[in-house]
Amino acid sequence: MARNITPRKENYSQWYLDVIKAAELADYAPVRGCMVIRPTGYSIWENVQAKFDAEFKKTGHVNAYFPLLIPYSFLRKEAEHVEGFAPECATVTHAGGEELEEPYAVRPTSETVIGYMYSKWIHSWRDLPVLINQWANVMRWEKRPRLFLRTSEFLWQEGHTAHETEQEAHEETLRMLEVYRRTIENELAIPVTAGEKTAGERFPGAVATYTCEAMMSDTRALQAGTSHFFGQNFAKAFEIQYQNREGELAYCWTTSWGVSTRLIGALIMVHSDDDGLIVPPRIAPVKAAILPISKDESVAANDILPKAKELSAKLDEELGGMFTKVDTDFHARPGDRFFAHLQRGVPLRLELGEKDIATGTVRIVRRDTGEKLDVKNEAVIPTVKKLLDDIQANMFERAKAFREANTHDAGSYDELKAIIEEKGGFVRAYFGGTPEDETRIREETGATPRCILPGDNRGKCIITGQDNARLTIFAKAY
Amino acid sequence: MARNITPRKENYSQWYLDVIKAAELADYAPVRGCMVIRPTGYSIWENVQAKFDAEFKKTGHVNAYFPLLIPYSFLRKEAEHVEGFAPECATVTHAGGEELEEPYAVRPTSETVIGYMYSKWIHSWRDLPVLINQWANVMRWEKRPRLFLRTSEFLWQEGHTAHETEQEAHEETLRMLEVYRRTIENELAIPVTAGEKTAGERFPGAVATYTCEAMMSDTRALQAGTSHFFGQNFAKAFEIQYQNREGELAYCWTTSWGVSTRLIGALIMVHSDDDGLIVPPRIAPVKAAILPISKDESVAANDILPKAKELSAKLDEELGGMFTKVDTDFHARPGDRFFAHLQRGVPLRLELGEKDIATGTVRIVRRDTGEKLDVKNEAVIPTVKKLLDDIQANMFERAKAFREANTHDAGSYDELKAIIEEKGGFVRAYFGGTPEDETRIREETGATPRCILPGDNRGKCIITGQDNARLTIFAKAY
Description:
In chain A, about 35% of the residues lie in helices and about 30% in strands. Chain A contains 14 helices and 24 strands. In chain A, β10 and β11 form a beta hairpin. The longest helix of chain A is centred in the C-terminal third of the chain and has 26 residues, at about 380-405. Chains A and B meet through β2, α2, β3, β4 and β5 of A and β2, α2, β3, β4 and β5 of B.
């Protein structure tokens, strides 16, 4: 059993990779910049998907599937869009043994091809709104790949909606931002700040981009989900027109929004410790590992295993799914067996030893705090249920307290520079500058504006000195 | 409301496309040979996925995700495999603005790249079996595309397993064939014949390929799912080795198995009629459409709609999901509203008119038979539940009877030729010939051996005259 996880303080980047390796979440693929999502990592992604998908459906969205390949001529129809994405595209030039007349891009995102289809499907105001989501793979060629955070291929969902009015489209953009905030906080236990992006950080082709920003345990920021309001930019580029209630031809108002397998990177960096992964109970594929333990392998296998299986079946019934796992690695040492579940981030470990059987108790160990409880048999099920809720709440509160302890205010640009250099974390400052100012700040400090805080927080810009600037979070980011 | 579905007898191919269009299942994409799966089609695929995924998990499999791109050098490691797939591949030659040193194929199937990863992950017999499935998109460039049946990109699942022994791998191949048979029959209501493929029809690189063959309503065959036993072919090509129980290095035995969005093509061609799609209740996204109806729009919207919503909520609770849909298209004529659900294949239509309200009944119309029932309010829920079961069973039995009525025996090659030409359908004949014989039969009759019937049915080969040939189904196929 490998326990060689580099401590965070020693080398945070190596710690991150070690956690992924020890938990068998992912592996580098033999394709430049691409990853393989291993079963443990993929089962977390399946749970994340299920949570978001349920929220999308509750808010009236349906799923569909659009093609992987996009004609380059489509990308070129929206000037900012092609400028933003073409340099990152992978290109298919040959197929079926022949050179193609027009090369295709492997989709980096699907606004263009979906816009084209919407222009064919939408005729009247009665066809609106169109509320479609797609779960898919996308490619954006990465020079410096990093598992889950930046890979040349990743999995995501992209919602694409078309509306009658500007107001409806804007409401949709904010509705989905709120769905993201709520789901990331409630299910992944990651506190996020939801707000608008500054002009320099907008999605190529968007009128406004909104984001959920999370703080990792090295105090850097990570963009965990974005929601874009396109105005009529894509509708005009792809002629998404409809006959309005007055019988006139009008352009639709469109949005898009997405979260990706990056969320698993966030999950690792927000919650895990020097022993490895910690998964919040609500998205944990295994919520409790049950270990029959004895020095005598045959006692463990013959006497204790049936009791472990019985407990597992009862708990699964109570939890409403196959959420427990009985560990039968009797050939391994108990310490190694404990460590296997620890490194995989299983929220609870239930130990059933000979002594526990004799005393009619089960030893329960929490992954988040390491706390050990000896619980009477009859109290095991309610205790497990309560502990899972406690762990979920504790993980969220712990991450929130960490974020708050690492958020600072800067009254001037010098102060911002000093905080970023000395303390890191999130820095709140009034900002009303241009994209050029954002570039200068990034070059001088390494930090970027992560999002404008919602609410009417206004003051004097630390860069331009102008009044009425918005309170904005700056941070170094992944 | 478009009712222009070409009758099957007039033009079966056009009928198929018309059904897809009327039900809004799919559309051609602006990428050669590719399709867009529209929300109605995709929701059927989601249900199909859920049924299969549950079966895979019950049989101990887990999901993972492997890269979209495959180095060409990988494809070349298995001689038959590269010969079979390279001509159909789409090729990525450029990425991130540069020409790649080695071009990548967009995966046509993933044995090679998964084999490579398995060689890294598998060390000891304790790591076996590895039972992984992947849900993904794949590309095989099609010269003559056909929605759902042959598209250059399609969605599928591919299971890839590695085992200690030949016997275990062979058992896995047959276990998954049986999972396919059972799921296709029970959930999609499509009767299939499960058996081995002849040598000429094997998957490139397989030692044995097994298939589920279904009969479409024009009596042609369609391969609905395949399961392959690879022996040690891929293990040797990719050095998937493990230390066995005796401490020696040994090659694994591997399998793969897959079903795809082709199943939706099968679903359409097995069950639908000249009015459009018919979806079996167990995989229907909408199991019952509820229509408040009145000549007076305001009566429908104000007086009847609340009763329809109440019934919908009760039925959803009873059916365990959001399976009913209340139709509020009051502006449209009743006939057009009926047709909208008819064309989408919704199993039951529940009409709530003023007369029904007065008499305390609901009119229920079956999609499969057109039968109309006036049911007392208090009996609606049990009647709907019973009718959904009846429709599922009836659709299966009807398709089975059709297949049996169109299956014939041929005692000689001349007889086979005559049946294929005059009647079509499945033809059972003893066959023990070579792949060259298969080619000759295909060129002379248009039919191919679809599968060898299971069981010990042996007799004299209609081609070679040799004894001990296996009873084999021949048919023209999609």
